[in-house]
Amino acid sequence: xxxxxxxxxxxxxxxxxxxxxxxxxxxxxxxxxxxxxxxxxxxxxxxxxxxxxxxxxxxxxxxxxxxxxxxxxxxxxxxxxxxxxxxxxxxxxxxxxxxxxxxxxxxxxxxxxxxxxxxxxxxxxxxxxxxxxxxxxxxxxxxxxxxxxxxxxxxxxxxxxxxxxxxxxxxxxxxxxxxxxxxxxxxxxxxxxxxxxxxxxxxxxxxxxxxxxxxxxxxxxxxxxxxxxxxxxxxxxxxxxxxxxxxxxxxxxxxxxxxxxxxxxxxxxxxxxxxxxxxxxxxxxxxxxxxxxxxxxxxxxxxxxxxxxxxxxxxxxxxxxxxxxxxxxxxxxxxxxxxxxxxxxxxxxxxxxxxxxxxxxxxxxxxxxxxxxxxxxxxxxxxxxxxxxxxxxxxxxxxxxxxxxxxxxxxx
Length: 412
Ligand code: AMP
Ligand code: MG
Fold this sequence. Notes:
The chain has helices spanning 6-14, 166-174, 213-223, 238-251, 268-275, 310-328, 382-387, and strands spanning 2-4, 22-26, 39-40, 50-51, 55-58, 72-80, 94-98, 110-113, 131-134, 144-145, 156-158, 179-183, 187-193, 197-198, 209-210, 227-234, 255-259, 278-285, 287-288, 292-298, 301-306, 338-343, 347-348, 353-363, 368-373, 390-394, 400-401, 406-411. β24 (353-363) and β25 form a beta hairpin. It has 4 domains: 6-20 and 185-328, MoaB/Mog-like domain (Molybdenum Cofactor Biosythetic Enzyme, Chain A, 3-Layer(aba) Sandwich), CATH 3.40.980; 22-44 and 161-183, Alpha-Beta Complex (Molybdopterin biosynthesis moea protein, domain 2), CATH 3.90.105; 50-145, Molybdopterin biosynthesis moea protein, domain 3 (Molybdopterin biosynthesis moeA protein, domain 3, Beta Complex), CATH 2.170.190.11; 338-411, Beta-clip. The protein has a 7-stranded mixed β-sheet with strand order 1-18-20-21-17-13-16, with helices on both faces. The mean pLDDT is 95. It is α/β, with parallel strands linked by helices and 412 residues long. The longest helix is centred in the C-terminal third of the chain and has 19 residues, at 310-328. The chain is 18% helix and 32% strand. The chain binds adenosine monophosphate (AMP) and magnesium ion (MG). The site of magnesium ion has 5 residues, from loops.
């Protein structure tokens, strides 16, 4: 059986995945989808010079001497609500009432907010005054949002591979993209295996446990952007395993993911079935937890077999499967956020690359993150994973981390 480093195993897995096909969707369906095109702005933003205040468009040079004691009186020659398109040219001695977002007329070079005038009345429907007194001078350009200040036509504003966030959808809409090209969601068939597994609502009986992995893994897959098809539990016999795997082929999924049965000798049925229509390698990965895993393909569909222990399955997902889903889904984002943390206690390791359950907290005084391990690190102990908010990464080759040393952690 091959012994691989974590990086080698990840590289081997990733090299067999290509992005899925794309589809054009209306913007309303694009939240959390991955963009499959670069977005180039077809117009400037804002598209025209406009006012950032309710006030009066003016020529700054007219107001050099204006003060509250000696206001400057201007003739109001136009009223410019948002959505209107002024055609006037503002001459010296003139002002135009203007609303936030309305175009600044030619000739004007600044906006005086209503607060600095004797016409501080914003009630709807109030007509513009014939004259206005201005109490303050303004700088040229004050309260003016120039055309193109945010985005210029021709700028690439979003790149292919970006996971679309709510604010991205707003930007797409403002640029006139009512629909965009996105990657379709990767489809993953998921099953658990083992004769000991019961449904979540079953009463416990001798020697049996409830299947927890399929819930954890399905939720992780969905969070990573996949559509999940839950195939249930494969019992430890040839026909049951073959039946599940053939369903996956019929469904035309992009990945088959299973948990359990990958330690030496245990996975015989899966191995037999998969090798009748594909291939399967068993790996020992130099990591903790989650050393054994299986990787291959069935009917040309990639297959990843994670270990059965609940924490090992979780860590195996984070280390290998998340990256595979990202590759399949066309995403260029980098996975879990990583922070540098300082260990509060000495940690002994066994030289394997270790992903330990930890609780990261902020030290407000020193401005750093400190971490403690949570509970018993046995790979079957799901509660210690639930209590953790991070996986602390101890590099391969390290056997003892002294208290105070800095390490990387993934926030989970
Ligand atoms: P295995 O990889 O089949 O040797 O299983 C390793 C351990 O994980 C055993 O204690 C199994 O009972 C447990 N296990 C396997 N599958 C699941 C599952 N779906 N949910 C919870 N525990 C499991
Ligand atoms: Mg088993």
